[in-house]
Each structure stands twice: as C-alpha cells, then as structure tokens.
Amino acid sequence: MKKIFRVLAVCILALVTALPSFAAKKVSAENWPNKPVIITVPWAVGGLADQANRALAQYGQKYLGQPVVPDNKIGAGGVVALTEYLREKPNSVKLIYGGEGNFAIGPLFNPVPFKWEQYAPVVNIYKSNFVMVANPKIGVKSLADLKEYGKDKKIIFAVAGLNSSEYLMISALLTEMGLDFEGVSFDGANEAMTATLSGDTVIGITHASLAKEFVKTNRLTPVVVFDDKPMKDEIYNLECVADYGYDTFLVNRCILLMPAGTDPAIIDKMYKAVLQIFEEPGFKETAENLGLTLDPIGPEECDKHIKDSMEKAQRFYNMLKK
Length: 322
Known about the structure:
The protein is of the alpha/beta class. The protein is built from 12 helices and 13 strands. The model is unreliable at 7-14 and 16-24 (pLDDT under 50).
C-alpha cells in the first residue's frame, strides 16, 4: 500500500511540475506567433495580391518577431486554398486572403464547401477599381460607343474566371444595356488582358493598375470605370458606370483572414502589425509602383463589406437569370 502511495505521489508531483510547461504552450496574444507566419495567396502568381503579399512579408519579422513566409496555392479561383484552410484551428500562424469574389460571387455560380462565417477578417490590404478596356481597332472609347458597336455584333469580352467579380459586373452592365454578349474565361487577369490586346476578345475588364501601362502606350483604350465616381489621374480620365445611370459595380478588396474563433487580441495584434508595415517607406514605394490603393479597414468594416457585396451580387445574378 505504501508503495502505491509513493508511486501516486511521484505521479502527482510530476503532473504539478509539468503544469507550467503546459500553460506555456497555450497560445495567447503575448506568445503569438510562436513560429513563422505563413500567408497564402489563393490566386494567380504575379498578380496584385501576390506582389503585395511578398512586399508585406519583407517586414513581418520586424513587427511580429517571427518571419512571414509568402505562399501560393492556386485553383478554382481560390476555392482550393480556402477549402484546405478550413483545417486550420483558431489562433493558427497560417493566414489566407479572400474577397468578395470568393464569398459573395463565386457561390452564386458554383457551390463551395465554405462560408464567410468560418473565417475571421483581420484587415484589408488594398482596394482596386475595375476598368473596361477595348482593343483600339474597334474604335470604342465610351459606353455610348459600345452600345452603337453592339447594335449588330455580339460583344466578346475577356475575364479572369466566369465566377468572378469582373464577370458579374460586366455581364450585369451589358444586360442592362440590352446588348448581346459572351464572356471568355482565362486563367488570371494577365491572360485575360492579353486576349484583348491581341484582339481575340474585343473588350476586357481588369484592375486599373494592371492596364495602365497598356493604356499609356495606346495598346488598350479605356472605356469606363466600374464605380460611382469618375477616375481621373495621370493615366485615366474616365466616366463611371454611375454617370450612365448604372450601379453595376462592386468594390474589389483583398482581405487577410484567420480561422473563425481566433482570439480577438491575436487578430488585433496582426492588424496593428500590418498598419505598421504600411508605414514602412519601402512598402509604400512598392505599393505606389504597383498602383495599389492601400485600404486597411479593420475586421468590422471587412465583415460589412462582404455582407453588402453578397446582397448586391445576388441582385446582379438574379438580373442575369431573367
């Protein structure tokens, strides 16, 4: 009996001694991250999100105490990576990007195995405006020109995916204009833009920042910006779709996400680190070179953006089904 008590006492002592080490392993805002942070871009390599992510990663260790490793996992417009990400538990050191295309638009065209509520928004990185561009050979410089052109021709347009923000916006617009159209899907924004450059498609819709060099050299003609205000800068002098009485636009955002249930203090820590990185002169220079409009809205505003986008996207989708 005494031997049993001695063994039991030794076990209890070992357990009590180990308790501090168990506690030390519990993840909290103070010790997060406890290993390198991996941030995945679920879209095409070389795109805006990929380049912004790599620029962000350069300064990660300075503000988080651990390296930030940029990662890419492409497939089905982000569906593959966002689905795999559901395996991550709250407080994970792995983060991923997502946007209205993944949660508000894609699910309208094809079922997806995830929901917005399964992710926790941290911070938005940038927002961008989409512009319609035309091959110069067709002579279209405005929506009025496009309507005239489309009176007796089907409008073939290029888009980075038939379940994307771009497809939904331009299809809703052309539907409201009463034009006959067909979208051609390409693997990424760069390939879609190349199709319009070559004349394989007559118009395209893409990020203003991606098209600017081709607009500058007159290889693409800007037609309209998908927004409620005109775009005027050193490259563009564009009317917006709202000038023509249409509201067929969605704001494109690139939101950094963590698993739902993540400690709000950890989310806040990551949010503040991103804000500090945004102030780095080197990051600012990269953002300017990429033509990024930095837009670091926080978790609540990101949540509102996605939910508002869901409502608007559903309306556009219903319009196409009529």
